[in-house]
Amino acid sequence: MSAPDTALPQPAYAVRRLALSAFRSYPALTLEADARPVVLVGENGAGKTNILEALSLLSPGRGLRGTALVDSARRLPGEAEAQAPWAVAATVEGPDGRFEIGTGLQPQPDGRLSERRAAHINGVAAPASTALSETCRVVWLTPAMDRLFLESPGGRRRFLDRLTLSFEPGHGRQASAYERAMRERMRLLKDGGAADWVDAIEAQMAAAGLALANARARTAERLKADLAPLTGAFPQAAIAITGTFEETRSPGDDGEARFRDMLARRRRVDAEAGRSLYGPHTADLAVTHLGRGRPAAECSTGEQKALLIGLVLAAARAQARADAGAAPLLLLDEIAAHLDARRRAALFDEICAIGAQAWMTGTDGALFAELGQRAQGFNVTNGALNPI
Ligand SMILES: Nc1ncnc2c1ncn2[C@@H]1O[C@H](COP(=O)(O)OP(=O)(O)OP(=O)(O)O)[C@@H](O)[C@H]1O
Ligand SMILES: [Mg+2]
Q1: Ion ligand 2, residues whose Cβ is below 5 A away
Q2: Atom 18 in ligand 1: residue holding the nearest Cα
Q3: Cβ < 6 Å from ligand 1: which residues?
Q4: Which domains does the chain have, with CATH numbers?
Q5: 236 CA → ligand 1 middle, Å
Q6: From ligand 2's centre to the CA of 48, what distance in Å?
Q7: How far is residue 192 CA from its own chain's centroid?
Q8: What are residue 111's phi and psi, to 5 degrees?
Q9: What is the rounded CA–CA span in Å between residue 54 and residue 19?
């Protein structure tokens, strides 16, 4: 695949050193890498995805498995509860130089594990929710996402929100402000709260909701711009954000005033339904396979995978463009197994053209042979990583 004319310069985000402590299957692990893509090869259960999960926790949130944070703490067989908090430390190279990032479960005074996360950037404590996305960018694709187009809109919304968060670190704050205001409005509607209280909460909900919807729309525009160069091995896709709020917008309208007005008019309907029926929390990401002229959900399993890879590569490209050419870390779990030889070669070429340090896992090292010296490889066995 040929790179588009706008070459993306280095340096990309690259993990040069990774240290894990009490993380899933790893009591302790240290790994050094150069800036090239990384291939992790090992048998089922060897601990490959655990490494990717640890890397995903260099960004805010619950990581690529999406499980509770305490679940990542190492538990011995038969143990109901983990004994020690997990910690991940990394030396990350990026466009602004090198950073030491540390994150882990925040210890509680009583010694129990909490669901809260602590983060340190260059040794200084910082809020995990914002500081991490300002320091390191991470985009991932896992086998669990293979059903993204078939399942409920919630998964696609989370996918879109995660991408948005990596472009705009403030997105998470707007999303929580919106959710909070929506819950509070529902409580007031149920309890018969005073009208001016409801007015005030609806104003908050409209402001945060509009910011949320606008940030998602900007992400979709960025993706559209970077989906175009992906020709050949990956299908051309059209994307759109659908939903009650998005579909009733017209260019140039004052979205916030209209949203407030809509909320005021829908009080009874929403109170009866027990939930807000209108707003950006109902949004969905609609993806169409242009070559087939069909929505993604109607495409074959392989076509859906190719569409998804195309979206993730477009996101990586768009992020590099938005960040002085620095591609995000790409975490691609079991990526090679799903692709035929032509698509695999195209994927590797695209990763190298973007300049991303992509972390790829597989049980069969031969599937990565095409990368040759363009990547570094490690065998994962018995909780240790050995250079191939
Ligand atoms: N909290 C935990 N504490 C200890 N071990 C764990 C914990 N969570 C998961 N494991 C173990 O980690 C091991 C490695 O899991 P991982 O998913 O990384 O394997 P993998 O190499 O990706 O395998 P596959 O090729 O099947 O995807 C598994 O045997 C799993 O039981
Ligand atoms: Mg795995």
Answers
A1: 49
A2: 47
A3: 24-25, 42, 44-50, 71, 73-75, 363
A4: 1-137+323-388 (3.40.50.300), 147-319 (1.20.1050.90)
A5: 35
A6: 5
A7: 39
A8: 85, -10
A9: 9
Per-residue confidence in pLDDT tens, the chain, 388 aa: 444 444 545 689 999 999 999 999 999 999 999 999 999 999 999 999 999 999 999 999 899 999 999 999 999 988 888 888 999 999 999 988 999 999 999 878 887 888 999 999 999 999 887 788 888 999 999 999 999 999 999 999 999 999 998 888 889 889 999 999 999 999 999 998 889 999 999 999 999 999 999 999 999 999 998 887 655 788 889 999 999 988 888 777 778 999 999 999 999 999 999 999 999 999 999 999 999 999 999 999 989 999 999 999 999 999 998 888 899 999 999 998 878 899 899 999 999 999 999 999 999 999 999 999 999 999 999 889 999 9
Atom 16 (ligand 1): residue with closest C-alpha?
A: 47
> Rounded to an integer, what distance in angstroms lies between the CA atom of residue 99 and that of residue 122?
6
Using alpha carbons, select from 273, 255, 267, 188 the residue that is nearest to residue 216: 255
Pick from 264, 121, 134, 287: which is nearest to 199 by CA? 264
186 phi, psi to nearest 5 deg: -65, -40
Q: Output the CA 50–ligand 1 centroid distance in Å.
A: 6
In this structure, what token pair is assigned to residue 211? 């910011």
Q: How far apart are CA 382 and CA 42, in angstroms?
A: 10
Q: Which two tokens stand for residue 85?
A: 């908090």
Which ligand has the minimum distance to the alpha carbon of residue 84?
A: 1
Q: At what angle do helices 195-227 and 153-167 cross, to 10 degrees?
A: 80
How many other C-beta atoms are found inside a 10 Å radius of the C-beta of residue 67?
Answer: 11
If we measure between CA atoms, which residue out of 72, 169, 162 comes closest to residue 127? 169
Q: Is the dihedral of CA 313, 314, 316, 321 positive or negative?
A: positive
CA-CA distances (angstroms) from residue 208 to 157, 178, 179, 200, 273? Answer: 16, 5, 9, 13, 22
